[in-house]
Amino acid sequence: MVGGAIGGAAGGYAGGLVGGYLMTGDLRMAQKTGLNGLVSGLAMGGVSGGIGGYAAAKEAGINPWTGKAENSVTIGGPQDRVDNLAKEVTKNQTISDNDIQNWPNDLPAYSGDNIPSPKALEFNKIWIEQVIKAEYYIYDVGRNGYSPFYNGIELPAIQNYSRAYKVTYIRTTKILIIYR
User: Fold this and answer.
1) How confident is the model at residue 92 (pLDDT cuts 50, 70, 90)?
2) pLDDT band (50, 70, 90) for residue 10
3) Which of 20, 50, 63, 130 is paired with 158 by a 20 to 30 Å CA distance?
4) Based on the domain organization, do 168 and 147 belong to the same domain?
C-alpha cells in the first residue's frame, strides 16, 4: 500500500506538472496541477497497492494483517527457541488440517536415558512427510547438537522432497526459513 501510494503520488505530481505546463505554459499553474495530481495519485496508488498486497499475501498463504503464514510449522531446537519463533511467524504451532496430526500429548519423545522412543521417531517421520506434502511453510531455527528427530528425520525428509517442494532458502543470522 505504501509503495503504491508513493508511486502514485510521484507519478501524479510529475504527470500533472508536465501536462499543466504543456497546456498553459505557466509554471505556477503547472505546479498547482501537479499538486492536484499528487493527491489523486496518492489515493489511487494507495488503494491499488493495498489491494494488490492483500491479494498477493492471500495467494501466498500469508495473513495480510499479521504477516504470519497460515499453514506453517517451526522445527529445530531446543523447544523454547522453536516455540518463540513460532509465536512470531506462524498463525499457530498447532496444525488444524485434519490430514496432519499434532504430536500426541501421551507420546514421550524419549524413553529413559536419552533413548528415542521408536513410536515417536515413526510419528515424527510421518508428520514431516505430511507437512511437506501439504506444502506448509517450514521455519527452521536450526539446532545445537544432534537430534535423531531433527537431524535424522526432518532435515533428510526436507532434502529428499526439496526438488518437488520447490524449497527456497533465506539465511539470517539465527534462522533458516524454508518457503514452499
Assistant:
1) low
2) very high
3) 63
4) yes
CA–CA dist 41, 160 (Å, integer)? 49
- Please tell me which residue, 33 or 75, carries the higher pLDDT value: 33
Of the residues 15, 33, 59, the one at which a domain ends: 59
pLDDT score at 180: 47
Q: Are 139 and 175 in contact (CB under 8 A)?
A: yes
How many structural domains does the chain have? 2
For the record, the C-alpha cell of 171 comes out as 539465511
Report pLDDT digits (tens) over 99-153. 677 788 899 888 877 899 999 999 999 988 888 888 787 888 778 888 899 888 9
| 52 within a domain of the structure (yes/no) | yes
162, 91: one domain: yes
**In angstroms, what CA-CA distances link 47 with 59, 126, 152?**
18, 44, 48
Kindly state the cell numbers that stand for 56: 498477493
Cβ atoms of residues 139 and 179 within 8 Å: no
Rounded to 5°, the CA angle 135-141-143 comes to 120
Residue 170 and residue 88 share a domain: yes
Contacts of 103 (CB under 8 A, 6+ apart): 123, 127
